[in-house]
Structure formats: C-alpha cells, structure tokens
Amino acid sequence: xxxxxxxxxxxxxxxxxxxxxxxxxxxxxxxxxxxxxxxxxxxxxxxxxxxxxxxxxxxxxxxxxxxxxxxxxxxxxxxxxxxxxxxxxxxxxxxxxxxxxxxxxxxxxxxxxxxxxxxxxxxxxxxxxxxxxxxxxxxxxxxxxxxxxxxxxxxxxxxxxxxxxxxxxxxxxxxxxxxxxxxxxxxxxxxxxxxxxxxxxxxxxxxxxxxxxxxxxxxxxxxxxxxxxxxxxxxxxxxxxxxxxxxxx
Length: 249
Description:
Layout (H helix, E strand, L loop, with lengths): L1 H8 L6 H10 L2 H27 L11 E4 L5 E4 L4 H26 L1 H4 L3 H21 L9 E2 L5 E2 L3 H9 L4 H20 L9 E6 L2 E4 L8 H8 L9 H11 L1
Antiparallel strand pairs: 1-2, 1-5, 3-4, 5-6
Helix pairs in contact: 1-3, 3-4, 6-8
C-alpha cells in the first residue's frame, strides 16, 4: 500500500486494479495527501513554469529556490541569484499562486495533517484570520490583544476592522471571520504560555518541480492539544468569559 501511495504521489499512473486497491484499503487522508503531492509536483509546477516562461524566465532560472508563505500571507523567495528574477517570481506567487500553495501545504505537511481536528481548525483559522485582517487594515494585528466584550463583539481591533466585523450583517465571509475570532480568543486564553500555533508554508523547487518542505510549529502542539481536550467535568471555555469582563471593566 505504501508503495502504491508513493507511486501516486510521484505522479505515476496506476492501473485500474491498483487504483481500486488504493480506494478500498488506503485511508482517505493518505490518498488525498498522495494526490496533492502529485498535483503540486506535476500540473501545478508545469502551470507555474509556463507563466514564468511567458515572462522570459526558464525552469533552470528557479532551480533550487525556496518559497516561504508566512501566516499573514507574506511571500518570500530565496535561492535565486538574479534579484530581478527573484522579484518577478515573488510577485507571481503573491498575486496568483500563494493561496493554492498554502492549500497544498496544509494538505501535504505531516505537521499540519496529523493534528487533531480541533487543533487543526485552530491553526488554520489563525492563518485565515491573519490574512483577512491584514487585507482589511494593511497591517499585522496582534491576536493576543483581542478580547470579547459582554455584548459578544470583538474588542481590540483597529477601527476599520472593528466596524466591518462587529457591525456587518448577513455576510457569510465576515460572519465566518467573527466565529473564527471568537474561537481563537478562547483558545489563546486556554493555551496560556504555550503560544500561538503559527506556521510558515515552505516549498522547494528542485529537479524542475515543487515539493513541500515541512517547517513544523514553533510551539508544542501535543501540549496545546492537551489543553483543548475537555476534562471529565467543567467547560474548557469557562474562564474565557471571566476574561471578557476583566478586560472590559
């Protein structure tokens, strides 16, 4: 099974019997991971290179480069000697490919994929919220300084973001961000000194194709997950509401 999944990840064609075997006996997560690896290595890399070639940049020009996409969406590129080429590649990723690369990263990197569903949601919500808030305000917002007010609003946001998130009605995207912020504020309170699970989506371009370079987390994700596991009694969010009033009064 592992060999077939690796063949799939490498972009090799499986025959009908092999595909059926994988569908029956492989778990869905491993199968999706192999498919993501194959897409990143083959169709995505080819599309990326075609765009570069239309700009006069060859596959060889970017061989050995490393790409990093921060939790706020900022893109950095290293490993390209020609600064002009590096800037063009960085701009292309930032404007067209960054979101897709992030999705490949969370679908391939074991450090993200092996998280429990609760911690996975927390880590990916942080990325989504950081990018959204930066897009709205043009600056990086410290999530540790946010809090809930007694009337259920998000406190600590710059005015522009506060008005948008706290006053906008019937907008699914903004409501999703508010729900994520409520959950993040609660989890930051619970996690205490363990820190926020930020991660950087990292890639390398080697042998003419992209692959994920798993950067892991700077915080102890096992310990963090333990904080979020409900105990036999009590509510893991119970002290979040004490915190609300402490911040407001």
